[in-house]
Amino acid sequence: MATSLVAGLALTSLFLSPPAASAGENPIDLDLYGKLLEEHTRVVDDLAATRVDYRSLRKSTDWKRVVDQVHAAKTSRFSRDGKLAFWINAYNILAIDLIVRHYPIDGIKELGSFFSPVWDLEVATIAGREVSLGGIEHDILRKMDEPFIHGAIVCASASCPPLARTPFRPDHLREDLAAAMRNWLRHRQKGIALDKVAKVIHLSKVFDWFEEDFESRGGVLEAIADLLPPEDAAWIRQEAGNASIRYFDYDWSLNDLR
């Protein structure tokens, strides 16, 4: 984690600049999905930061339409942008729908067990392929060498990154991913917090679990530095080698709007 921190703007720009997506790579009605996010989620002043009204989504026929669109998607001709955007949106939609179908529950991990964790449960068949949340994350998204996915996919838990209240779109995926990561990092209880006196950097546990995904970008701190306030970025680049890393406890309670 304390990898030598060279100037990171060029690296960040590089991995956030995939080729432009072609038109028609939105098998999901993103306008409808965006409308549902606006109507059924709320920004809140607590750990979750964004909470979801699962109870109201259970009654929404529009929600069922969006979920059906995910299941019916054909993905073989997607560009890199289109593939990333689709699978990020699909992960979030299918995670929400998993809760909707089993609501009320206290947390997503209740839906699995020690021997069969929730991440391995089949949540859809897409283009003839049975998929789970874990499969989408590990077998599809993580293999695309885009570490900022970890600020975009949300497993319905309070310590997850805040759920983006707008869809991820292929035509401006760079901006969407940066915005999601920046929003996550600004939350001092679950993104990043700097104790500059004690020289301690507190980070989300996600950055520990998936540290290897950031190695090609110079490490976690180098990858995220340009999304922090300038004074924090400068401090990290100067002091990270002398600072210790600690991780926030992870709260798996449901990001429910109750």
What distinguishing features does this structure have?
disordered N terminus, 7 strands, 258 residues, single chain, 3-stranded mixed sheet, 38% helix, two-stranded antiparallel ribbon, alpha+beta
Account of the protein in words:
The chain is globular. It has 258 residues and is α+β, with helices and mostly antiparallel strands. A 3-stranded mixed β-sheet has the order 5-6-7. It has a domain at 20-187. α5 (80-102) packs antiparallel against α6 (133-141). It is built from 10 helices and 7 strands. Helices cover 38% and strands 10% of the residues. It has helices at 9-15, 30-40, 54-57, 61-72, 80-102, 133-141, 173-185, 205-209, 220-224, 230-239; strands at residues 41-43, 50-52, 122-126, 129-132, 192-195, 200-203, 244-247.
Q: Report the C-alpha radius of gyration, rounded.
A: 18 Å
How many DSSP E strands? 7
The number of helical elements comes to 10
Strand residues, percent: 5-15%
Shape: globular
- Biggest sheet: strands, sense, closure? 3 strands, mixed
Cα-to-Cα separation, first versus last residue: 38 Å
Strand order of the largest sheet: 5-6-7
The secondary-structure element order is HHEEHHHEEHHEEHHHE
Helix content: 25-40%
What would the average pLDDT be, to the nearest integer? 92
Secondary-structure-derived class: alpha+beta
User: pLDDT below 50 for ≥5 consecutive residues: which ranges?
Assistant: 1-23
